[in-house]
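On clarity, I found the account of how folds are encoded harder to follow than it need be. Since the whole study asks how a given chain folds, the encoding of that fold should be made plain. For illustration, here is how one protein appears when written out as sequence plus structure tokens:

:::
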Amino acid sequence: MLTCYYNGQWLPNDSIPLSADSRTLRFGEGLFETFPANANGPVLFDEHMNRLWKGMQDLAFQIPKLLSPESIRETIARLMQKNKLTKARIRVTVMRGPGGLFDPVSLAPDLLIQSWPLPDSSGLLNE
């Protein structure tokens, strides 16, 4: 069973606590970036993080001060270690929590980071 990172917790991939009242589930209020990573780190990381931050600004997320591209990079490295992966597909998902049509409970994002094995034959990583 693979581990994921969700709002500061390390959880099994199949036990992410998502509410049916999530604005992401109800209204699609969230975004994600998917990219390969290896022992040297995520591929094109700065480009992906620039696009993620632009999307969060467009969706009016209040980005916590502790959430930074560097903290995401460090979490990805720890996640790959926990899942014993040297090559991985990484997905960083930022989503809005619960709320009604016009009233999110919080403008701060929920953060989910997942990893899966990336086979050598994928052609996505050239070391």
Remarks:
- DSSP finds three helices and six strands in the chain.
- The mean pLDDT is 88.
- The longest helix spans residues 45-58.
